[in-house]
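Allow me, if you will, to draw on your knowledge of protein folds for a short while. I am sending you one protein, given as its amino acid sequence and as whole-number tokens for its backbone shapes. Kindly check, if you would, that the fold set down in the tokens agrees with what the sequence suggests. The record follows directly beneath this note:
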Amino acid sequence: MDLQKQDLQQPGPRPQGVPAASELRASDAERDRIADILHDALAEGRLTADEHAERVEGVLRAKTVGELEVFVRDLPAAHGHGPGAVHAAAPHRPTAGAIPVEPDDNVVAVFSSAVRKGRWRAGRRIHAYAIFGSVEIDLSEALYDHQQVVIKSWAVFGSVDIRVPENVSLRGMGGGVLGSFEVATLDSGDPEAPIVYVDGWAVLGSVEARPRRGKLVADILDRVQRKVDRSLRRHLGH
């Protein structure tokens, strides 16, 4: 009787033609989960910046669940027994008095287009105006002198497109009037990481802010690498 019960509990053979779980096509949500594990591993010093960039690139190219799992197979978080560090979420509003009333930079597009991208210095307050035009603000390679950055956006029959590195925190505080105001909320694992607040209105237009996968704030990477180097020197007795 016990043998019969044991046989019933054993999983039967997989029906012919049914793929294994690792052979299933990967979804965007699964790619994001793997990317988050890699992001945490970089912040913890388990991966170098080059290793992280290489793996993230592979994650974006992966087609199946099995191909994704390869990139985190050697990381504790992928097996449910990571260090479990808890990071406080970034506040939803800037610290009182931290952001000036007057903008440090104005990006204006009226019946035209305007772009801020590449290696540029982001101020604490940026105003973006897209009126029958388009504004692109790319912070993925910007220099951050301050931890909190507010981008006040007005899109009237126009569009404001904002991109940030994937290792900052991102918050949305605006809205839309017959328009679209979309901010992909993001939490950095580093409490010292910049926080980008997107505020304003989309009136018969659109404001969109989201992370650019694979792009990281350079000074955060440098700080992480320095921590890794110090740990290695202590371990080697230097």
In short: The first helix runs from residue 2 to 9. The two ends are 66 Å apart (CA to CA). The mean pLDDT is 81.
